[in-house]
Amino acid sequence: MVFQATADAPVGNATVTITGTSGVLTHTATVALSVTAPPPPDFVALALSPTDLTIKAGSIGTVSVTATATDGYTGTINVSAENLPTGVTMSPTTAALTPGVPQTFTLAAAVTAQPATSTVTRTA
User: Fold this and answer.
1) Tens digit of pLDDT for each residue in 61-103?
2) Which domain range does residue 52 map to?
3) What is the 3-state secondary structure (H, E, C) of the chain?
């Protein structure tokens, strides 16, 4: 037996009685049923490609960012970067992502940029 709650089913608990009959015989069993609210729409991850990037001073590199939505999330996701090394810029500096649609960011290292290793944090 499959129970399925419609989107407008009220949240709550119920005791459902299942009855089986055959001729004069009757037996029942109960199941405790809980209907809970669906999870709110959300996005679960920001995926980067590549996850490691080396840029020579005076050069550029690109990173693609894709957001994954769950539970019917249809909004946009604002992203930006933190912890860029001195002399490195990112364009665009912020972007509104649509889930499932990759956005490419360009990182440019000035010719005066000093060698550095940095973990860039993406914020959404």
Assistant:
1) 999 999 888 888 888 888 888 888 889 999 998 889 999 999 9
2) 42-115
3) CCCCCCCCCCCEEEEEEEEEEECCEEEEEEEEEEECCCCCCEEEEEEEECCCCCCCCCCEEEEEEEEEEECCCCCCEEEEEECCCCCEEEECCEEEECCCCCEEEEEEECCCCCCCCCCCEEEC
